[in-house]
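Recall that a protein's primary structure is simply its ordered list of amino acids. Everything else, from secondary elements to tertiary packing, is in principle encoded there. The following example makes that idea concrete.
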Amino acid sequence: MTVTSEKAEKKFTGWHMLLWLFGFFGVMFIANGFFIYYARTSWPGVVEESPYQASQNYNKTLAEAEAQNMRDWHMALSLKRRQQSVFLVIEARDSNGKALTDLDIEATVGRPVTEDFDHGLTLVTSGEGSYQAEIGALDPGRWRIELEASRQGELLFLTHEIIALK
C-alpha cells in the first residue's frame, strides 16, 4: 500500500504582489512622514527675521564690520565653574593691550542647532577689563556664545563656540 501525501502547492499571485507593494511603500511613507515631521518641528530654519531688510542693510553691515576690524578689540572668553554654577568671563582689551573698562556687553548663550536653549545675559564689570555673568547650569556638549559689546556707538559682534564638559 502506498501512501501519497499531497501538498497544497502555494502560488504567488498578483494579489500577493500587490500586498507586498502596498506594504513596502506604506513603510516608506510612514518613515518619510516621521522624518518630515521631525525636521519641521526641530529647527525653524530662520537665520534672519527679515532677509529682505538684511539685504537692504548689506553695505551698512560691511561698513560696521570694517570699523570693527579697525578697532581691533580683543575678547578672551572663558567659562569658570563655581560650585553648581557656570560663569561666562570676558577679558576685553584694545589693540594696545589696554583694558576696555566702559563696555556694555550682552551675550546670547545657546546650542548651535536649536533655539530652544537660547538665553540672554548682561555681563557686568568685575575688574580692570573683566566682565562676567552667571550662565547657571551648563549641560555637557557644544554651545554657541554670541557677544555684542558697545561703547559710545562703537560695536563689536563676536560668535564663539565652546564645548562644555561635565
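The two ends are 81 Å apart (CA to CA). The chain has a mean pLDDT of 86.
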